[in-house]
Design goal:
137 residues, alpha+beta, 47% strand
Amino acid sequence: MDHRRLHHLATLALAGLLLNHAVFAAPLLRCHVTYAGSTQTIEARPVADPYPVASVEIGGRFRFKAVMVGDAAHVDYIKLYTYLDARRQPLLIQEAKYLPPFKATAAPVVLTGEQHLYAGPAERELIYSCTLEGVQP
């Protein structure tokens, strides 16, 4: 093989590695949460400590918290919390835990499917679904 062809192949191989790294560079959890016809998108990136992650207020009735524990190279677990926003303090109505292995692909992977939760005196409905992307093989 001549020197120019070898350099070209090395450049292509490096570009492939960089592209693969870019595709799987940073895991991202994206949840679409719907209440009363309004949808919010909540995103979570890996954290080392799940406790400081804040919940998000949803329509004055619910709170939603998405936590992905790990780092850019590995997701240890994902937890989703849904609370009824009660007078005294939020009341946990669902906790969902997802453990690896997670499917590694360039396209977002459906993690939860569509979830329907009902809570409160009037049985209010909250709907959410989450996808995961950027997970390394």
